[in-house]
Amino acid sequence: MPTIDTDRIQSMVAQLQNMAARAKAPAAPSETAGLTDSVGAAGAVKGGAQVDFSAALKGALDGVNGMQQSADALGQRFALGDDSVNLSDVMIATQKASIAFQTTAQVRNKLVSAYHDIMNMQV
């Protein structure tokens, strides 16, 4: 029977607290300056390259799908008795995949809402 590694759990809790603190903190001026300087008026990145919305969306969806598949594979390995996989790792991977999926669903909802708003505008 595998033992519980309390040091690893404490490390994960510290990482989660650090992420929560960064999410609550306002963005530093140096972080936002690069965003406004590199993107032009029509969404084109200065320097000639353009942001391809469909490629960005596909990349985000592929990332979420990869996270879900990775979490499922980790869960299956744990269920099959792989000693190299901890329950905490499985739970964290599953929660990350769940949060990524929920975020994707919310972005989709906002896009659909924006589409409906645009289609209902009178020209």
Percentage of residues in DSSP E strands? under 5%
Average residue-wise pLDDT: 79
Computed CA radius of gyration, to the nearest angstrom:
20 Å
Shape: elongated
Order of helices and strands: HHHH
Instruction: Report the end-to-end length measured between terminal Cα atoms.
Output: 69 Å
Weakly predicted, low-confidence segments: 29-45
Assembly classification: single chain
Number of E-state strands: 0
**How does the helix and strand content classify structurally?**
mainly alpha
Number of helical segments with 4 or more residues: 4
Largest sheet: none
| Helix content estimate | over 70%
Structural account:
The protein is mainly α and 123 residues long. The protein has a domain at 53-123. 72% of the residues lie in helices and 0% in strands. Helix 3 packs antiparallel against helix 4. The longest helix is centred in the C-terminal third of the chain and has 33 residues, at 87-119. It is elongated, with a radius of gyration of 20 Å. 3% of the residues are buried. The model is unreliable at 29-45 (pLDDT under 50).
Characteristics:
123 residues; mainly alpha; 0% strand; cell projection; cytoskeletal motor activity; Flagellar hook-basal body complex protein FliE
